Amino acid sequence: MATAALRFPPCLSSRAAPTTTAATCTRRTASATLRVAAQPESASASAPTSTPDAPPEFSPPAGFAPPVPKRFAVKDGQLASVAGAALALPFRLGTGLFVLGYSVSLVSADKIPPDQYSLEFLGLKVKETSKIDQCRRPEKPIEIYEFEGCPFCRKVREMVSVLDLDVLFYPCPQKGPTFRPKVLEMGGKKQFPYMVDPNTGVAMYESDAIIKYLADTYGDGTVPIMLSLGLFTTITAGLAMIWRVWKGSSYTVSKLPPQPIEIWAYEGSPFCKIAREALVELELPHLLHSCARGSPKRQEIFKKHGLFQAPYIEDPNTGVKMFESAEIVEYLRATYSLYPQYQNL
């Protein structure tokens, strides 16, 4: 997918004035709201006539060098963060770790060529298959407005991982000045998550309705059991984030880049969660390439770098490409936060 083609609509090209109204992430019992709209409407008619300021230029921090990826390693001092982010594994029973129809088998090493991604175990290789190649793939990224600390948003993100979808996320942290107001403008409510599918013209609220829509449109129509248990699903999604509930929810004053950051990640990974928390707090739009177990996108990273590890980001605004969640957070804050010296992971 060409990054250059992914630019923000005119009405999102600059920060809106800060708002002090924080919408509550809460479950609604009303039916899903549908509307035919693929992009936020342009606000050019109401734009000021004065010449806009030139967009800020972005560059990596002075002396920056991408870290060497270290598989299964935790940076000193970050064990508690990773452990807290990993609470989702028992509470959500691994939902979002595997793509639709995932299956695994052990085969001899010569059955999988060395230039193809696979795990090794006791001298054998792990062959992973799925049903993703049988499902419809969206031509354009689906757009979702949400924030990390919301259990209803988490449910939708898990379905995104299961269906191996590419999604352009517009983060909506509390007091975020740009995308929270746009949701109210587009849909009439500050309620999250809010999805816009430019491939079909459908836009909707309600996490369960979004999950069903994605399953019917880009899956085989089935919803994983841990996403179909009603109140129990919502409670466990909330418990999965309880140790880091304050992370990925509140806005940190930042600079909006002209292009979304690309990230290869998936919902079941605690390392990916830590990186996405920073993206959301900084209100940085990001194109997420889902890559749960069984995803063919793992091969893309393996082909580029000779290994697969998530999260991995490519920032078209600075040219930075890097692995390692803790270092990704440091990079994002140093590059985009107006006050990086006051940030802690």
Task: Tell me what the structure shows.
The chain crosses the membrane at residues 225-246. Residues 53-62 have a biased composition (Pro residues). Pfam families: GST_N_3. Residues 140-222, 259-340 form the GST N-terminal domain. The chain is globular. Strands 1-8-7-5-6-10-9-11-12 form a nine-stranded mixed β-sheet, sandwiched between helices. Strands 2-4-3 form a three-stranded antiparallel β-sheet, with no helix packed on it. It has a single domain (65-100, 134-342), classed as Glutaredoxin. The protein has nine helices and twelve strands. The longest helix has 12 residues, at 151-162. It has 345 residues and is α+β, with helices and mostly antiparallel strands.
CATH class: Alpha Beta
* Estimated structural class: alpha+beta
Task: Estimate the global geometry from the Cα principal axes.
Answer: globular
Estimate the helix proportion, in percent: 10-25%
End-to-end CA span: 31 Å
Give the full name of the CATH homologous superfamily: Glutaredoxin
Q: So, CATH architecture?
A: 3-Layer(aba) Sandwich
User: Biggest sheet, in brief?
Assistant: 9 strands, mixed
Query: What is the H/E string?
Result: EHHEEEEHEHEEHHEHEHEEH
Number of domains: 1
Reading side by side through the largest sheet, how are the strands ordered? 1-8-7-5-6-10-9-11-12
Q: Number of DSSP strands?
A: 12
